[in-house]
Amino acid sequence: MDRRTLLSGAAVTAPGLALLMSGGALRAAQGGDRLSLRLVASIENGVQELRDLDDTEGSSSNLDWAHGLWQSVARVVINARYRNAEADRLHTAFIEVCEQYGWMLFDADRHAQAQRVYQTGLRLAREVGPAGPARFAAHNLLASAAYQASWIGQHQEAKTLLDVASHGDLPPRVRAVIADREIFAAGRRGDTDALSSARDRGHELLQDAGTDGPWWSQWLTPHALDAATGRAWLAARKPEDATPYLKQRLAMTGPAYPRDYMLASLDLADTYRVSGDVDACTALALQAAHLTDGVESARALSRLREVAAALQPYEDHPGVRDLMHVV
Q1: Sequence-distant contacts of 169-172: CB under 8 A, at least 24 apart
Q2: Could you tell me the pTM of the whole model?
Q3: pLDDT tens figures, 19-70
């Protein structure tokens, strides 16, 4: 990761903070082609299919397709003529594709590009109303941008983005998604009180929400919140608190999602390492290493190298030697 190209400080938070101020409504092109509802539906389906591809196959092999979709939807936003009902759906889809493409760039370790893609979505989000699907999508985008900021050590920026994401009248399930990101960010910055508070709040919100909520929020379950809690306790250097959550996470993650399974294995392995159980750590790390051929994720591969590097003090251990050979 080349930190010279990363945005930081106000350059990260200003586009999010701008959502707290009213912006002028975005005007459709006057001379462009008419936008049909059929094309809007096709765009919406394309964004959802992109999410499915990323979930099952990982980011790296699908980035070209994601980039093309992102650019194409942006051109439609700029050049097409449309009415208010069409505009709401189109703007929502563009913010959603910015979030999804930004997440994929983050997963591919292209952090500077991810930041800029997130910000294109935020610039459009300022032009939409203070409620409704487009604004809900913008708050989800803010939460994902905060997750990335926390991952790369920009803890104050992450907290600011999450504070903005929590502002406003949002459905319970959207607030629960934000709470999930708050759990992880709190653990990364070592704020265990905020971690526990966000976890409790997330579970309460999910219970209130039921199945209602945007399509992109349906991944969030009580088990997913607990998985985030385990990762957060690990980041906060509390392996005894992390272990039960991470064991459950690994047991609940199926082979249909190899990236998630690899990351779950590595997080639990790292917990065992911090606890001093080198045997259990290396067994899980080796299990994760054997998944690399089927995982298109620079983030997961980087996590594997990180766990392997932390085991170097135990290089005489047979399992560690095997892992170093594979990695």
Answers
A1: 169/130, 169/131, 170/136, 170/139, 171/136, 171/209, 171/212, 171/213, 171/214, 172/205, 172/206, 172/208, 172/209, 172/212, 172/213
A2: 0.93
A3: 887 655 555 555 556 788 899 999 999 999 999 999 988 888 899 999 999 9
